[in-house]
Design a protein that fits this description.
Bound molecules: 1,4-dihydronicotinamide adenine dinucleotide
CATH topology of the largest domain: Rossmann fold
CATH superfamily of the largest domain: NAD(P)-binding Rossmann-like Domain
Order of helices and strands: EHEEHEHEHHEHEHEHEHEHEHEHH
CATH class of the largest domain: Alpha Beta
Number of strands: 12
CATH architecture of the largest domain: 3-Layer(aba) Sandwich
Strand order of the largest sheet: 8-7-6-9-10-11-12
Oligomer: single chain
Number of domains: 2
């Protein structure tokens, strides 16, 4: 298939080119993000391949289909950025990579958790600067702490397993409890109980209308004083302004993020030579107890290889007229 691949960096090309040896698709790489301005680049391409910060709303979908696109292949598990109803209406098939490496994301989650509370980010800078003082670097033992996992799918389950290894007690909230999680003694709670009892809250649910701003002013009124919040899922699960207020008055003791609700204007770009215009994000960077990575939780060799193979495998299945098993249908999502 002729595939227009948007939002590509050298690392995307490397893994897609490797995977394409087994598929032979005609891949055209664009650095640009897919959006209202760049959508004409996709004219004449049967398939379009996008990542998490591309714009795939109703207008872009209508334009893609008018230009001959029949398949949208996502290099991500999440599909909250795609207007599935519009895709359905226009007959555009959507496929994704449901699980490229839940271990990559779970391990990064734990790395953030450890780093922010043991102040590794600050310690690293201090030591490089010849400052070997420990003041301000006091952490706490994770052993015996209560970890609240919101969303116990593939990633949440692995985080639960890892944190059990640290001697933590695990609480979970998920409208669809997972027997594998219950099997090793994790207790499901309602959301309010989890918020009020846990020392660390880590988010592993998808972004949906139900989960938008799940952690907001009201939720922060229920959390333990000094709670740690970790989000490697989707930025808009957190109302960033509310969390900033929580950080200012100490209700939030630590915040570790791999995602941010307005990340589309920032992440995956080198903006080190420019003035950041996002004042909310800039405020976050001023807190000593906030650690942010730029949507890199997925970024391991193993995950990138799986993304390349599954993305092109999905396109091959579509071209051969057989299901890949990775289709995203609006009726499944609404079911
Ligand atoms: P999954 O589909 O295996 O699990 C998601 C879980 O969330 C399911 O158990 C589901 O029942 C639960 N859930 C649904 N609605 C909920 C709600 N209202 N409250 C609590 N739980 C709810 O997904 P997986 O693979 O574990 O991924 C989780 C999220 O991680 C994805 O939705 C994606 O947004 C994010 N992600 C982030 C990456 C990164 O690089 N930072 C990479 C990959 C995924």
């Amino acid at each position: 298939m002729r595939i227009a691949v948007f939002s590509t960096r050298a690392y995307d090309r490397r893994f897609l080119d490797e995977a394409n040896l087994a598929h032979g698709h005609d891949l055209h790489y664009f650095d640009a993000r897919l959006d209202h301005d760049t959508v004409p680049l996709a004219d004449g391409f049967e398939a379009v391949c996008v990542f998490v910060n591309d714009t795939v709303d109703a207008e872009v979908i209508a334009r893609l289909v008018a230009g001959g696109t029949r398949l949208l292949t996502l290099r991500s598990a999440g599909y909250n950025h795609v207007d599935l109803a519009a895709a359905h209406e226009h007959g555009l098939s959507v496929v994704r990579v449901p699980a490229y490496s839940p271990y990559a994301v779970a391990e990064h989650t734990v790395a953030l958790m450890l780093s922010v509370q043991r102040k590794i980010h600050r310690a690293h800078n201090r030591v490089r600067d010849g400052n070997f003082a420990l003041d301000g670097l006091l952490g706490f033992d994770l052993r015996n702490k209560r970890i609240g996992i919101i969303g116990t799918g593939k990633i949440g389950l692995i985080v639960a397993r890892i944190m059990r290894g640290f001697g933590c007690s695990i609480r979970a909230y998920d409208p669809y409890p997972n027997d594998d999680v219950k099997d090793f003694g994790v207790r499901y709670e309602d959301l309010d109980t989890l918020l009020s009892e846990c020392d660390v809250i880590t988010l592993h649910c998808p972004l949906t209308p139900d989960t938008y701003h799940l952690i907001d002013e009201e939720a922060l009124r229920k959390t333990k004083p000094g709670v740690m919040i970790v989000n490697t899922s989707r930025g808009a699960l957190i109302d960033t302004r509310a969390v900033i207020e929580g950080l200012k008055d100490g209700r939030v003791g630590h915040l570790a993020l791999d995602v941010y609700e307005e990340e589309g204007d920032l992440f995956f770009e080198d903006l080190s030579d420019t003035v950041i215009q996002d004042d909310v994000f800039s405020r976050l960077l001023t807190f000593p107890n906030v650690l942010i990575t730029a949507h890199q939780a997925f970024f391991t060799e193993e995950a990138m290889r799986n993304i390349g193979q599954t993305t092109l495998g999905n396109a091959t299945a579509f071209a051969e007229g057989r299901p890949s098993g990775n289709e995203v249908r609006v009726q499944d999502v609404l079911a």
